[in-house]
Amino acid sequence: MNITALASAPLDDPLYYLRNARQVIQLCLSQYADLLLSEEAALLEQLLSLDVSAQALLLRMVMRKGTRFRSDNVSYNEVPDQAHALRQLVEARLVDDQPEVSIAALGDLCRREECRVLAQHLLPEVHFTASARKSDLVARLTADFPSEQTRPVDDWWPEIPFQLIELRCNALFDRLRLMFFGNLYQNWSEFVLTELGLQQFEPVQLTAESRPFQSRAEVDLYLQLHRLQERVAAGESIESVCAELPSPVACDWIDYRRQKVLFQLGREAERQQQIELALALYQQSQHREAQLRSLRLLEKRESPEQVFNWAYAAHARIVQPETRLGLRRIQQRCARKAGLDYVAPKNRPVPVESTVLPKPEQGRVEQAVIESLSDTDTQLFHVENRLFTGLFALLFWPALYAPIRGAFFNPFQSGPADLYRPGFSDARAEWLDEGFAQLASGAYRTTIVQRLAQKQGISCSLIHWPSLSAPLVEAALALIPASHLEAIFRHLLLDVRHHRRGLMTLAFPFADFRQHQRLLSETVYKGISTEHTLLLEAPTGIGKTLGVTYPALMAMPRRQLDRLFVLTARTTGRQLVLDSLSMLRPVAATDASLPIRVLELTARDKV
Prior knowledge:
It contains 28 helices and five strands. With 607 residues, the protein is mostly helical. Mean pLDDT is 86; it is low at 587-593. Residues 442-502 form the VRR-NUC domain. Residues 15-96 form the Fanconi-associated nuclease 1-like winged-helix domain.
């Protein structure tokens, strides 16, 4: 089955999110029909048969955080008759308009004055002042009505001024999201924020053997791992969660996920000073960082000589340079403490030739360097880190887009999902060998030049097309020996994650957007993507600033932009922008460091 047989909806369509979501549902119904229960498939088919307004209302709620909503908070222009749409959703058993809730849940949904009226209704003998804080009102209500006590909303408050709506299909949509994205950290909003119509994607043919999920049990296992993480994040004890950890599974990419969860739980146990549990979790995990963390803990309790030997053995076994560097540091510390005769390998010195150039009066520094050093015999190019990853992708294109199980889930992927997993190279040994054989035979030049023309513009996570011009590629192929390219490409394959960087994998620093922050981010992204001017009026705050900087950065590589100008006041506004970038950096560091340089220019005169 070809997973590229989908067409994205244009962003000027007010129902673009629904058009995209319908295609996701249809793809899952066709690709994973055997992994859905009959009642789940029937529910999805029924959803697709409802009025467009009912479908739109449901998808709007699915895209938002939580499962309970006030009727006055789910009003949208594209749903003119909310009551009619809601009736259809209730009749289809997709939502519940009379859910049973605890008083704490109801209090969270009420505004302060509503909480006061509710408290006065339930506790008439108590006088609640008009200035009472919401937190105090909710605390008093929960003290009198335990959280395990649930009732229909009308039983709590017959005169409630809004209707409470609860999703009944959120678990099913989590399942769909997992099957479509291949993970649960991407949400529907991220899919909506992507201007798919401006991009082309390489077609990938999925077979029964390469389908990521082969059984419903595999989907259930992934969901179970996710729930275990959520329980720990919610404050449940690590011990109780670890008791439910699943055993190893045959599917490599899902078991890699299990190994990663073991490592993450180990990190949390270590933060809580549960060292024995952390060590046990690290030692069960094959995640490359687990061994490093384990050795760092053992440094504090075992003899330096013993830890040195363990680190030495691990260093010989692990090939990723970043991890090997951490192991080498452990060896150096332990050798020093144990008095061992150990000299760490020294890095080969890089020859440096320094030239001082006058500061350019205008333009970029890189361009000034190019102009200064170029002559009739020398041509310079500013490539950053994009040249070698681009050449690699063009030569090994069949390997990147090979139908490997667990690599491709949907038609909107710029690259394989397993690009950063340890088994990436082993799973593609045949295709990689073909590429290296071309380097040996000399055929690689023709292949790269031809693919540069054939694949131009196709979204690829290793290529920034504006930086990969034909003159640059031809010059590189003419001047760089094949043996050097082979060494660079083999080094890149050792640790693709740390050997390339980019904005394309930038993630939002929180689990979800706030209600109005999502709308702000979507609007900013659409404005930049469609090259329109956008005038926004909103009070200054970190939420609004982050809601602008994040989508702006996300849109930059897709619109081939390399600069973002932000004009702010010198005090609060400036700091908010810097804070928002600081919040994005740790998130980016989990995949690739944030490739941003901040230049501050301060006006001497007020403007």
